[in-house]
Amino acid sequence: MKIGRQAHRASAISTSSADVIVVRGKDLCKELIGQVSFTDHFWLLLTGNLPTPAQRLVLDATLVAIAEHGLVPSVQAARMTYAAAPEALQGAVAAGILGCGSVILGASADAGVLLADVVTRSATVPLRDAAAAAVGELRAAKRPIPGYGHPLHKGEDPRATRLFEVATQAGLGDQHRAAARMVQELLPELTGKALVMNVSAAIPAVLLDAGFPVGALKGVPILARTASLVAHLLEEQLKPVGFVLSHAGSQAVGYDGVVPPGFTAEKS
Amino acid sequence: MKIGRQAHRASAISTSSADVIVVRGKDLCKELIGQVSFTDHFWLLLTGNLPTPAQRLVLDATLVAIAEHGLVPSVQAARMTYAAAPEALQGAVAAGILGCGSVILGASADAGVLLADVVTRSATVPLRDAAAAAVGELRAAKRPIPGYGHPLHKGEDPRATRLFEVATQAGLGDQHRAAARMVQELLPELTGKALVMNVSAAIPAVLLDAGFPVGALKGVPILARTASLVAHLLEEQLKPVGFVLSHAGSQAVGYDGVVPPGFTAEKS
Amino acid sequence: MKIGRQAHRASAISTSSADVIVVRGKDLCKELIGQVSFTDHFWLLLTGNLPTPAQRLVLDATLVAIAEHGLVPSVQAARMTYAAAPEALQGAVAAGILGCGSVILGASADAGVLLADVVTRSATVPLRDAAAAAVGELRAAKRPIPGYGHPLHKGEDPRATRLFEVATQAGLGDQHRAAARMVQELLPELTGKALVMNVSAAIPAVLLDAGFPVGALKGVPILARTASLVAHLLEEQLKPVGFVLSHAGSQAVGYDGVVPPGFTAEKS
Amino acid sequence: MKIGRQAHRASAISTSSADVIVVRGKDLCKELIGQVSFTDHFWLLLTGNLPTPAQRLVLDATLVAIAEHGLVPSVQAARMTYAAAPEALQGAVAAGILGCGSVILGASADAGVLLADVVTRSATVPLRDAAAAAVGELRAAKRPIPGYGHPLHKGEDPRATRLFEVATQAGLGDQHRAAARMVQELLPELTGKALVMNVSAAIPAVLLDAGFPVGALKGVPILARTASLVAHLLEEQLKPVGFVLSHAGSQAVGYDGVVPPGFTAEKS
Description:
The first copy, chain A, is mainly alpha-helical. Chain A has twelve helices and five strands.
């Protein structure tokens, strides 16, 4: 079945012959393996160009910042899945990645769209007005302001602060960081709540200042968490807790439906 | 429901307070963000220690080597999935990762187990005998020899050759590389086929020589391909081919079942 | 880490003792196994009550209607994934389900929200005005009208027609079917295109007329396609085409990036 | 890239024209929708034939038996995933399905292979010897005996007992049920443990006695659990517990790694 127009029929990422693998115009074996870092390669795959040192520094910093934060829901989903299906590590990683969604890790991408919108608007109006307008539209649509507030880090999110320092040291322009700060400044007035910028606003702020493509922002926490998921699944092989997690979960949630006549629940 | 003994109830990867996030004993913000590369961080997450320069070089090389090889099945699955469900980039990445299995990318892990087995056996018998015994057991169990042969690269796999060069330049020991070469040397005699080592044998050879944990080998192509999948999904947003791929697939496979009386297929 | 308020801590679906498994208040072994159909059980799991014969008839009809439509993208993703990772059938099914998204099969749920909206509005204004207003809001927000048009079935979608017949035979009320017909009638005038109702509008129309919960509509194509995916993966074991599909896909999409000096692509 | 021989290039499951959708040789709209149950359709998709009443009864019974068992790991993974990524119900279902693995629900398929093996061997030796030989081979390979024992149901698994009753009432032959009983009888002697047959042995026993294809056994719990997952995700929309589950899990698992100087964990 043919779906859509299908006018475009090419990819610009890789081609190969029996002897040469080309990635983004470069000979993989002669120009990349052993010569560029994995972070360089990720930037190259996305953009077609190797990063500058400043771009590499900022991308490394964001990937390191977001990779690991303990037994978050996606890690628990992955470890339970691996305990149940140890034949397929890829399935457990996939289960963990599926939890990188709009509520948990996807906020980075949504915050990036907001910050890019503020920067675009600020070409014609003062930054404060641009931020107020962009936030106002989200509020009017009853949508959350992505990238502000955190369940654990009630004050400053230390990862956000550190990422801004790294971007400043790298000498990047700061249009998107300024937009992120302005949104934070306006939030008490616009929403009645003093929410602090979290890592999900800081990541797009520093990456967009580095020229990272906005459409790939959602991939940054996904790639970072994949590294962490592999580490947790290695630990799960050696010191399993997957069924400890699910047992604790099942103990924490009761049953509030009806039961048949004569049924007696046991202590488990 | 309680499954298993659940004696162990701890993880050693991360903890945090309101102010500090600890990853493998280090303060994430003060000691890691902006100071280590993502590849360093992956090694740290897996092993509890930052890599040496030689270890980092080899890990980067393997991740770069295996990240991208064009429109392989897992990339096609991801791009079709994204075309059908653009609201969930994480789902399209997950669909791609699910294709990192025993036949396609999982061979790295299987080959690693083989090479580690050969090295262990070679403590007490000559390497040739160790390799012959390990391969012989796979043959007896009618299991394939993982890491040798490739549908496209019939001669030398250029990525394998390059990874060996990098490992040598890094000054690593070469026990597992020697085992990989010995298996290749013996294959014509043991199997009747002159299969050449591919990237899936070279990756574990150089990583195990660097001290990488064998239980995490399967995670290397998964992490590497995640970077590539994000790049393909960014391209899919800008220049979509997901439904081109599925249309071509459906044209290549006919229908050989029965049809109801009077049914006439149309050209599509 | 504690996320959200967590005030509610119970589920009403199932509980058990060592002797009795309770599902929605019923003794699984004494009251359900061998006595109700899987379709009955699905309705019970969702709503807490067994369906009436009319409800069962309509739910069966929708599941049968949407289960299978040949080598659609999600089936191709699943078959390629299984070819690459035959150790994990669950992973191949998951890859297929991930393609039940907003563009392909999720339209059922979106169309259900539209039809429910039209019915709600029609409590206070004539149906024509209710439908025009609901469609108008989608148009104003530049969102597609879900459930109308089909790449293959340009005229009437025969599955939609048949589902409406079944619902009429079942003696259900027809508020949502009337809403679906009214939207179709208005589309030429409101959009300039005469798009015909497809199966994704017919499914929610008949299910909502039967009292099916709107929040579970997205699960109907997912459950139905799971049955089909299992059948395709059984066929893939016996007569594999997974790599035929991916080969055809890779042949249909060229490379339009740059190449290194001297690189020559081969015929593949 | 061309992988494998690709000699076969057809599927026998479905084809269509603009007017007619053919599924397994039948006109979907005229012969199936509104006339067969979803369970009938699943059997048809798998085998090419509609089931007999006895076959339908047994397949319905197994799907009902295995669909739901409370907050099992795969349900928890799905509910956490949905809480984190509510934009993609399909992703949460997929995360749950990924936990249908060799340890948890995949035992049905492994047990089916064992029972089929026992039946095959019993063509030439007494059933007791056939069962002893098949179990002996698993023991020799240090593999578990799939389908016996349960963490909660220490005595008889009531679902297993009930499924056998249903199969007997349906009038099916009982070769595979006899094999399952014989394995149970021999286990104390062969393994030193009196493990009772659980639902994962009963499901393949009754389905294989009904003529169900052994290669599709793994799909039965997957399809059944998909129904349950959709119900849990509907409940998660209305009465969320996803983050309650993950909070409880994180409280149950401590941190046993090192911490930086001066770090103090807080009560969370």
